[in-house]
Amino acid sequence: MKINNIYLSYYVNDVLKEITLNFLESVENDDIKFVPLVSQFENGYMLEVKVISKKEITLDDFRIEYSINIKNSSMLVNGYQSWTESMEMTKNDELKNINSIINGIMEPYGDYSFYKYKGQKGVLHSYGFTYFRDIKKPMNNVLFLGSLDEKSGYTIFEGNLKNDKLIIMKDCSGYLIDDEKSILKIYIEKAEEKKVWDKYSSLFKESRKKWDTCVGWTSRYNYYKDITQDIILENLENMVRKRIPLDVFEIDDGYENSVGDWLLTNEKFPLGMNFLAYKIKSFGYKPGIWIAPFICSKDSEIFEKHKNWILKDKKGKYVIGGWNSKWGGKFYVLDFYNIEVREYLAKVFHTVINIWGYEVLKLDFLYAVAIISRNGKTRGAIMQDALDFLSDIIGDKCIIGSGVPIATAFNKVDYCRVGADTSIYWENNKQKFLKYRERVSSISSIHSAIARCRLNNRVFNNNTDAFILRKENNKLNDDQKYTLFVLNNLLGNCLFFSDNVKEYDENTMELLKSIFPKMKVNINYIKNKKEVYEFYFYIDDKEYIVLSNLSSSQAKVKIPEGEYFNKSEFVIKGNSIMKLKPYETKCYYKIQPKKDFYLVGTTGHLFSGSEIESIELTEKGIDIKIKDKFINNSDIYIKVLKDNVNISLDGRKCSKINKKGYTIIKM
């Protein structure tokens, strides 16, 4: 990487001044001292740029332009916030600004108002972090760059893959400096992908405890705003009848009188929200609730009685947070720095947690608090101030962050949405055509979950959003439903669904039960060729491959050497060519032969064999122990190389049958 240009502009008493350099050096003038610092960090290095002001200055722009050999690389494009489509892209891809047809109502959701889209093939931009991967040698080391400070402004990495250029820029306009401030701090290293993510995440101070894996039910993706107390109770009771071992049962949008009036429950919930929290707890689930803390709708009591709480721009106009037809159109942003707003939110969360009794808080539309910079603070600083405030008042209760700029949420939330809302459709083709990157879309959600999977269990637990298995009110075909189901399980520690399980047939219920217990996955590496993905991963000491065809054409994949087990195909020899229909996904357990006996596979868990806690040879024979929360029926296939060996399951002798040279235990 060779520096071509360093550019800094700032205002002193409304006069714009500029500094231009062509290499890293300290410079000083009557206003400021510009201090770049480079330090070695293991095999990589840290680049920090400090500004020491002699007068009060306001930053306008800062960027460093590099020459870099990236023409034959793919670039990780991390979108602006949770819902922004993210993926690895190449010099043949492009990012365009949102179409003017929907710009007026959808612009606030993205970066369209403050980042200038180039609209050229190969000119791509990523927020917070990125890497470059050699397309011809994808298993080689990646060149990684990651921001360590977003308070000085969102860090944007703009790569020109056709002209071998990289610009590191800060969204720092309006940043007030009256002493010494860091305006850029990034970590750069070329290394093996997993190792570089481990190093990067270790540089962030842990501020919240790590919650475990989570499977939950939410009202959103089936009922949306049209929920009632009876609908919630019916789904809760059906879940209990079917003995589904959920972690969380969450009530989403629709309980409040209006968006913003979180303590005013509407007439559809006559017994109140504390009654429902009590009911949920009584069945052994953690009660969860949805709140969008920084916005309000026009029909809310807040908007009617507290207009001084609404954020205004420099022209004195109310700041619009977005548009939602179910909320009456445009909605507005609360001024987080208004003390009355913070007092109101403190009261809301005190009531929700300590009086109503909710333990899991899904906090949504968080980006809205930082739509405009103000008070001498950048958007990034405002976002972090708001997240720190929420973390403080919520305490040790669980936070699920959504609609949030990803890098600002590191260690500020317990779970974080890493993709768009999934949908009963595979893709929203109209909004995709209009270049709306935050669209509700199942395939967009999957793309982002793949791109951000390395964040999982490092800086937070990834919430890969909802799967949809139901037949009613669903336009996904069977392969699309299964692919969404598998990949959401694979790529994150937290997932939800909204189906009424009473409507499931026997096969669908068996599939749902196959995700329990929810497993922590250790992804080794991912291959991608024309939307056909190969995921290689471990669960405990067991090795797996998932093959997933996200394209609309049939695909073929050659699996590596060895033997593999799949419920429908049984034992597959390595080096076989596997055919995948459009949108089809298959999962394989890699058989690990041993001297006396070994596990061939199981049929009860989505990830075959992962439900087995241990399998060992004792003086009495083979003893198999099953993990807690496993609730499905299952056949366990074992290869026994000695005759007349007793087999016990959780300490109890079990019956067995022999078939095709394998011993089968039925649970």
TrEMBL record:
Tagged with keyword Hydrolase = yes
Does rRNA-binding count among this protein's keywords?
no
Looking up InterPro entries in the UniProt record yields:
Aldolase_TIM, Alpha-glycosidase_related, GH, Glyco_hydro_31_TIM, Glyco_hydro_36
Q: Which UniProt keywords apply?
A: Glycosidase, Hydrolase
Looking at the record, the residues that make up the Glycoside hydrolase family 31 TIM barrel domain are 217-365
Q: Could you tell me which Gene3D superfamilies the record lists for this protein?
A: Aldolase class I
Q: Which family does it belong to?
A: Belongs to the glycosyl hydrolase 31 family.
Q: What is this protein called?
A: Alpha-galactosidase
